[in-house]
Amino acid sequence: MSTMRRVRWRLMAAAVAGGVLLGGLPLLLPDPVAADFGSILVPPSWGHPLGTDQLGRDVAARLLAGARLTLGVTIVTVLLTGIAGTVVGLIAGYRAGRVARALPRLADLVASLPTILLGLLATVILGPGLTSVLIAVCLVGWTPFARQAYHLTVRESAQDHVDAARALGARPARVLARHIVPTIAGPLVAHACVRFAGTLLTVSGLSFLGLGVQPPTPEWGAMVAEGRPYLFGSPHLVLAPALAVVATATLATVLGRRLDRDR
User: Fold this and answer.
1) pTM score, two decimals?
2) Which residue in 241, 242, 216 sits closest to 31, CA to CA?
3) Distances from the Cα of 65 to the Cαs of 8, 69, 96, 196, 219, in angstroms?
4) Less crowded by CB within 10 Å, the N or C end of the chain?
5) How many Å apart are CA 92 and CA 104, to the nearest integer?
6) Collapsing DSSP states into helix, strand and coil, what is residue 45?
């Protein structure tokens, strides 16, 4: 079994294990939104592995419940931006002309827009919530995929097998689907893993600023914001969700680098 295939199997196994963990463990833990005023700010213990918060809610239960939301929004965002950016990059890289050459410039222009500012504008128009976060991140998030797909497509379009397919009369859609997309898929998947880390930090950051989901719904960035006033007396309120964000982003980045190196 090749190294690339082993990495793919490990990725699938990790995804299945993560799904089982996020789906099963919350059923064994207390209600993540139910307050217990008799157990306020309890430090980590056997009964509460990560302690409780200012309302007596179990931090471990909220962390796992928040993982569903935080990781789910991040995955959806990466998929949407990845598909949109890849399509733009493929078109711009394969077709010549002013419009095709203008697409990468458009991506550079959009990439210069600050995501936080877009999040604020979306919040003013739509109000705080997941919709505002998705709009803000997606408006900018497609640009790295577009640039990556553009450069890869330009490189592959100059290969002999692509020229041969054109000479035989293959249509552009067939050339892209049969000769270019399979070749650039590996680098794009690796790039998506790296972008997953950045998107996770952005989504959590927007929620930290109050632009995402609203209390009492658990979400990692929002949990960090809620725990700030109790940082010195009960640091577990901040450390647990913050370490979850950092660890997940680090693992995604390492996986992306590994896939890029082993392809």
Assistant:
1) 0.84
2) 216
3) 27, 7, 48, 19, 8
4) N
5) 7
6) coil
Closest CA to 245 of 216, 189, 209, 205: 205
Burial class (CB in 10 A: 0-12, 13-18, 19+), 95: middle
DSSP character at residue 179: I
The one-letter code for the residue type at 233 is G
**Contact criterion met (CB below 8 Å) for 29 and 58:** yes
Residue 89 CB coordination number (10 Å): 28
What are 185-242's pLDDT values in tens digits? 888 988 999 999 999 999 999 999 888 888 888 999 999 999 999 999 999 999 999 9
Cis geometry, peptide bond prior to residue 216 (ω within 30 degrees of 0)? yes
Residues in the chain: 263
Name 63's Cβ contacts closer than 8 Å, sequence gap at least 6.
50, 218, 220, 223, 240, 241, 244
